[in-house]
Amino acid sequence: MKTNFQDIVDKVSSAVNENKYSSSYLALKFDGGQGLYDNFILLEGKNDRQFFMRFNKKDNKYIVIEDVLRSLNALNEKYGTNEDNNKKIIIDLIKNANFFNCFNGKKIYGIIDKDYDEEYPHNYLKNLFSDSVHDLETMLFNSDKGLCQKLQISDNVFDKALFMAYQIGTFRKVIAGKFHYRLPKFDFSQIFSGDKLLVSQFMTAVNKHGEGKGKIKCEDVIKKNILFDHKGNLKTDFDSFRADPPQDLFGVINGHDLTRLISYLVKAEITSKMLIEHYNLDSFNKSNLHSKLCGVNII
To answer: Dihedral of CA 283/286/288/289: which sign?
Structure first.
């Protein structure tokens, strides 16, 4: 039985007025009632959409959250336009979506970054997925071992960027878990001496340019950081790090830090778009996320 288009318009209008977010609304907005797609997949950003569109699954409609925000004032009013809220919006939409009653059984899925979540959202939401590493960029580097060579990034530069990004990542993890600060885009020349993070300068940049409530005391952050001592001295060096990388390496490193640090070291821009374009899609088979998406036949 075909769904009456006006019935859906009325239902969606009512849902929006009641501040509810239904899969029927998304179907109406992005499919126009034409039945072009079997799956609607919510993504945090345009880089994610660029990546998944490379798989050329014509029955998938990839929806970037900022497109949803532009389309639904109620969402915009509730969450604002801060891109850091995109993940929460996807989780909330998946929690509230009617998975099996959207244009004759079409479904909505969400793909999100793991970030520093200790409890994976997909453990309790069956239509929500993330990889076991921090984000898209870390997944690309971790699964495609030939990516650096294709981008003409030497092993030494990549390992150095990993070392530096890991130092920042250990602080990001503490700050994300306790202070919920939005960290700024760092000027690496101001917070590093060679390949060593200057903790005092780093925390000055966090408090001066970050977004959050109050100021973060350096001592409150450093006492929870296993990589630095209480005086802010790094407990390891590059050679030791390179010889025995930490097991949680790609879970702690922020992919944007990593790509920006590579750019900083080679003095040329390396972007997420370049990673996606040069990525070997066969390498995705090695990722934790791939098996999950195959399980619901959306990849």
So the answer is: positive
What are the Cα distances from residue 273, in Å, to 22, 44, 133? 31, 15, 19
Strands 196-197 and 192-193: what pairing? antiparallel
Q: Which of 8, 35, 6, 17 is nearest to 98 (CA)?
A: 8
Residue with tokens 């060593």, as numbered in its chain? 196
Tens-place pLDDT, residues 241-297: 999 999 999 999 999 999 999 999 999 999 999 999 999 999 999 888 998 899 888
> SS3 of 202, please?
helix
C-alpha to C-alpha distance for 183 and 254, rounded to whole angstroms: 11
Q: Is 214 left (phi over 0), alpha (psi -120 to 50) or beta?
A: left
Which of these, 33, 37, 39, 38, lies nearest to 2 by C-alpha position? Answer: 33
pTM of the full predicted structure? 0.86
What CA–CA distance (Å, rounded) separates 39 from 48?
16
Q: What is the three-class DSSP state of 61?
A: strand
Query: CA nearest 100: which of 77, 130, 79, 127?
Result: 127
Nearest of 98, 122, 124, 123 to residue 110 by alpha carbon = 122
